[in-house]
Amino acid sequence: KAGVTQTPRYLIKTRGQQVTLSCSPISGHRSVSWYQQTPGQGLQFLFEYFSETQRNKGNFPGRFSGRQFSNSRSEMNVSTLELGDSALYLCASSTDGGQSGSPLHFGNGTRLTVT
Amino acid sequence: DAKTTQPPSMDCAEGRAANLPCNHSTISGNEYVYWYRQIHSQGPQYIIHGLKNNETNEMASLIITEDRKSSTLILPHATLRDTAVYYCIVRPMGGSNYKLTFGKGTLLTVNP
C-alpha cells in the first residue's frame, strides 16, 4: 500500500506570495490532518479534514486554509507569506481521525522556505 | 492527555537490541501508547501502538508494564538506519488523535 504522498517536496517563495501544498492520503483513509513543524515550536496542528469537511482547526491565522476533495486528497494554502512561515509542512492520514485508536501516518512533508 | 517522559538520548551498537523506555505514570485506562520516530528532514514514521497488551510487528515490539505506567519500545536488531528521534505519545481511545503533540523524544544513535 502506498504511503502518504506530499508534493512538492521543496518550495522557495518570496514574502507576500501564496503557496498551495498537496497531500494524497493512504488509500481508504478519510481523515487528513496538516501540521507545521519548526525547530523552535515543534509540531503544531493546523487543521483536520474528514469526508471533505473541516472537523478541527488549530490556532493559526486565517492566511492558512485547506480543503479536502471527494477522493480524500487534500490541499493546504498559505496566502501572503511571511518569513515565519518557513517550516516543514506535514500531512497525516488515518482511517477515521483516531476515533478507534487508529494511528496517524505522516508523509515526508513539504519544506517551505520564505525569503 | 497523559504526559510522557523519555531520556533525551541513547546509544546502541549495530546488531544489538535497542530498548527505549517511556514513563507515562498518569495514563488513563482508555489511553493508547503510540510510538513514532523521525529521521532528520523526514516526516514522523508510525512504529507501533498498544493499549495494555504487549504488541509486536515487523518493525518493533512494545512492552507495556502491568500497571501501564511505563512502556519500552524494542528494536530487536538495530541498524544504522534506525538512528532517529523516537517519540512516545499517549492518546485516548475514542478521542480524535488528529492533534498529536510530540515531546522532545529520545535521540537514538546506532553506532557501527
Oligomer: heterodimer
Derived structural class of chain A: mainly beta
Number of helices of chain A: 0
Number of strands of chain A: 11
Biggest sheet character of chain B: 5 strands, mixed
Beta strand % of chain B: over 45%
**C-alpha geometry of chain B:** globular
DSSP summary: helix tally of chain B: 0
The residue-averaged pLDDT of chain A reads 93
Number of DSSP strand runs of chain B: 9
Shape of chain A: globular
Task: Give the helix/strand class of chain B.
Answer: mainly beta
Strand/helix succession of chain B: EEEEEEEEE
Work out the radius of gyration of chain B.
Answer: 13 Å
What does the main sheet of chain A amount to? 7 strands, mixed
Helix amount of chain B: under 10%
What is the strand content of chain A? over 45%
Low-confidence stretches of chain B: none
Numbering strands along the chain, what is their spatial order in the largest sheet of chain B? 1-9-8-3-4
What does this structure look like?
The complex is a heterodimer of chains A (115) and B (112). Chain A has strands spanning 5-7, 10-13, 19-24, 31-38, 42-50, 53-57, 64-68, 74-78, 87-94, 105-106, 110-114. Chain A is an all-beta fold. In chain A, strands 2, 4, 5, 6, 9, 10 and 11 form a seven-stranded mixed beta sheet that branches. The N and C termini of chain A lie far apart (37 Å). Chain B has strands at 9-13, 18-23, 31-38, 45-50, 55-56, 61-64, 70-75, 84-92, 106-111. In chain B, β6 and β7 (70-75) form a beta hairpin. The mean pLDDT of chain B is 91. Chain B is mainly β. Chain B has a five-stranded mixed beta sheet with strand order 1-9-8-3-4, with no helix packed on it. In chain B, strands 2-7-6-5 form a four-stranded antiparallel beta sheet, with no helix packed on it. At the A-B interface, β4, β5, β9 and β10 of A face β3 and β4 of B.
